UniProtKB/TrEMBL annotation:
N-terminal signal peptide: none
Protein name as annotated: Homoserine dehydrogenase
Keywords: Amino-acid biosynthesis, Hydrolase, Methionine biosynthesis, NADP, Oxidoreductase, Threonine biosynthesis
Chain positions recorded as NADPH binding sites: K105
Known EC number: 1.1.1.3
GO molecular function: homoserine dehydrogenase activity; hydrolase activity; NADP binding
Annotated metabolic or biological route of this protein: Amino-acid biosynthesis; L-threonine biosynthesis; L-threonine from L-aspartate: step 3/5; Amino-acid biosynthesis; L-methionine biosynthesis via de novo pathway; L-homoserine from L-aspartate: step 3/3
Domain (ACT) ranges: 355-432
PANTHER family: HOMOSERINE DEHYDROGENASE
GO biological process: methionine biosynthetic process; threonine biosynthetic process
Family note: Belongs to the homoserine dehydrogenase family.
UniProt organism field: Pandoraea terrae
Keyword Zinc-finger: no
Length: 436
């Protein structure tokens, strides 16, 4: 059989990684795919650099439309990133009958519904294993391996940059800015780290997982997103004293009222396996009704781990290229006409437990006033820690762990607590998950 022809958009970390892995493992990949896979054309901005890298192995062009509209190309691999240009290129490639492989979580979280609809119309596949948790085959697991299950919830450490920063803050007792500077120096964090540290990258990824897990459209605009940039080293220390670690989790859960879709720093019991995922590693915990809890761990970024997922998608598409489109695995795991309109819950409707840190005047009756406010709102206290006030300081920290309550109730409690004269600064609130 003739080799399948691949066009690459971009030859950066991911694109060049995929090119190298394909070349290096060519023989085994061909035995798996059933036919050869040949990169025939690459579009890049810096044509000279790319020509030097590929050393004559394929054509290099400056205009991505030359890849997207090349009649010989079967699969377009998009590794450029960003939304606007890539949306246009991907839709054009689909219209030209090309299958798409992409690592672009932002594109799919925001424009996925439009792209999947176009792909269905054109009878082509859109594969995106590399978009979530890099080299971990979590899309495959959710879409195929766990297909027997009614998935109940997913909680993932799906951003390596922030996990690295949190590990540094805990290990070294340093604050966020110092840990971010370390991450940038070591090349884990981008020069502009906003998407990572503010939780946007993780929200893109959990949005995609939520759609596949629950059979709903991608709905990034409904996700609650809170990053780690305001996290204080003292909270990591207090959490540790209480037997918890703080991780930036992407969480999606099915409830009777709707779907939770949220990213925020989260206290989780230190004894959970996922609590011990350190540095830039990723891990995703998936709970299905039949299988129970399953955990997937690995590298979420980097040239070759991401290439591992991109090339796996290329092989998948190659195997299914000639299959009847009706017999392919649906893009979002559920048949397109069987997606549900289950609502995504606003964060005020989410039920979870909370860590609260209060800086209070160290005098009689303060704790009684605070616990009265919580009791009046039916918020039950699970644990309470009062630090000794430092000598000469008339103030102290109180840490309260609550049982589960709705976010709107904790918001009301915090507003009342902050209004007390004896409470000296804003209340720090961090959500907690037992993940049991
Ligand atoms: N910037 C991401 C991370 C990797 O830090 O995990 C790509 O999604």
């Amino acid at each position: 059989m003739k080799p399948i022809k691949v066009g690459l958009l971009g030859l950066g970390t991911v694109g060049y990684g995929a090119f190298r892995v394909l070349a290096r493992n060519q023989e085994e990949i061909q035995r798996r795919a059933g036919r050869g896979i040949e990169v025939t054309k690459i579009a890049v901005r810096d044509v000279e650099r790319a020509r030097a890298l590929v050393a004559g192995a394929c054509e290099v062009v400056g205009d991505p439309m030359l890849v997207v509209s090349d009649p010989d190309i079967d699969i377009v691999v998009e590794t450029i990133g960003g939304y606007d240009l890539t949306r246009e290129l991907v839709l054009q490639a689909i219209a030209n009958g090309k299958h798409i492989v992409t690592a672009n979580k932002a594109l799919l979280a925001v424009y996925g519904n439009e792209i999947f609809a176009a792909a269905r119309k054109a009878n082509v596949m859109v594969a995106f294993e590399a978009a979530v948790a890099g080299g971990i085959p979590i899309i495959k697991a959710l879409r195929e391996g766990l297909t027997a299950n009614r998935i109940q919830w997913i909680a993932g450490i799906i951003n390596g940059t922030t996990n690295f920063i949190l590990s540094e803050m805990r290990d070294k007792g340093i604050d966020f800015d110092a840990a971010l500077a370390d991450a940038q120096q070591l090349g884990y964090a981008e020069a502009d780290p906003t998407f990572d540290i503010e939780g946007v990258d993780a929200a893109h990824k959990v949005t995609i997982m939520s759609a596949i897990a629950f059979g709903v459209p991608v709905q990034f605009d409904k996700a609650y997103v809170e990053g780690i940039s305001r996290l204080a080293a003292i909270d990591i220390k207090y959490a540790e004293e209480l037997g918890y670690r703080i991780k930036l989790l992407g969480i999606t859960r099915r409830t009777d009222a709707g779907i939770e879709l949220r990213v925020h720093p989260t206290l989780i019991p230190a004894k959970r396996l996922i609590a011990n995922v350190e540095g830039a590693m990723n891990a995703v915990l998936v709970h299905g009704d039949a299988v129970g809890a399953t955990l997937y761990y690995g590298k979420g970024a980097g040239a070759e781990p991401t290439a591992s997922a991109v090339v796996a998608d290329i092989v998948d598409v190659t195997r299914l290229h000639t299959a009847d489109p009706e017999h392919r695995v649906p893009h979002l795991a559920f048949q397109h006409d069987a997606l549900s309109n289950t609502p995504v819950l606003p964060i005020e409707e989410v039920t979870t437990s909370y860590y609260l840190r209060l800086c209070v005047a160290d005098k009689a009756g303060v704790l009684a006033e605070i616990t009265r406010i919580l009791a009046d709102l039916n918020i039950s206290i699970d644990a309470l820690l009062q630090k000794e006030s430092r000598e000469g300081e008339p103030q102290t920290d109180i840490i309260i762990l609550t049982h589960e309550t709705q976010e709107k109730h904790i918001n009301a409690a915090i507003a009342k607590i902050e209004a007390l004269e004896t409470v000296l600064s804003k209340v720090t609130r961090i959500r907690m998950e037992a993940l049991s």
